[in-house]
Amino acid sequence: MAALIAPLTLTSCSDDFLDVTPPDKATLQEYYSNKEHIMEAVASTYNPMRQYDNLFLQKMSNYASTQNPGDALTGIWDQSYKGIRNANDVLTEFLTTGRYDKRRPFYKTTSPSMDILVSSNLERLLYHVTGSDAEVAGLMKSLNETGSYTVRPETLAAIQESFGCGWSSEEEVAGEIRARYEQDGYLCDTHTAVAFHVAGRHKREGVPMVVLSTASPYKFPAAVLHALGEASGDDEFAMMEQLHALTGMDIPKNLRGLEGRPVLHTDVIDKDAMLDYVLSDVLK
Fold it and tell me: CA 20 to 30 Å from 185, out of 10, 54, 253, 275?
């Protein structure tokens, strides 16, 4: 199977765009439809980690920092996960109350992959819990038409058996980056800092804790530098070098090697023109 990826610069990417279902999207029955699929995903994620001698990799209370809440489905049968979000706390409210309401302010934070109002994969979790196409379709219809929905109490209770929740403010994220670097000598990115902060609130006596980091701090050098009390500029590559000089942490080679390379893709595509662009220009 061949995959074609075309980097595009979009003029906007709002929730109405995210609500559109791609015509080739896998159905709920096909995607993560059984435990074998989930375990394959778990193996592909964790096997590369086996080479490291990491004291955190033991039987644990598992807190996952993830840019996509659907990734937590990989452990829905065997683990208890925390839905860890940033200041855009729509999932925290849902996991606490059972009410999903996207009619709220949207904040641009230093953890951009967590900046959402519509969780694209929560629909799958609802299907796995309820087992009902009709019920989930009704919830999604309510979300599209009214901006909110509320699940049945028994649905929320089933979800809460595997999922907890928490959120972090921008100040708490910066403080966590600084604390982890000063206390542990570990430099983390903004998303991982959200997870560290929420995990700290849920520690249990005698139970080891693990935070799964999903990004390099060098992807967000300005935010990390500010958290460490340093000034930053507008040049991402210069900030990466500044962060390297400050901490001694190596810059990932795939990021270091980008500077000076020619820009290959310069088209700016309006969201409504994306499909036509792909069909006429990318796949021609």
Answer: 253
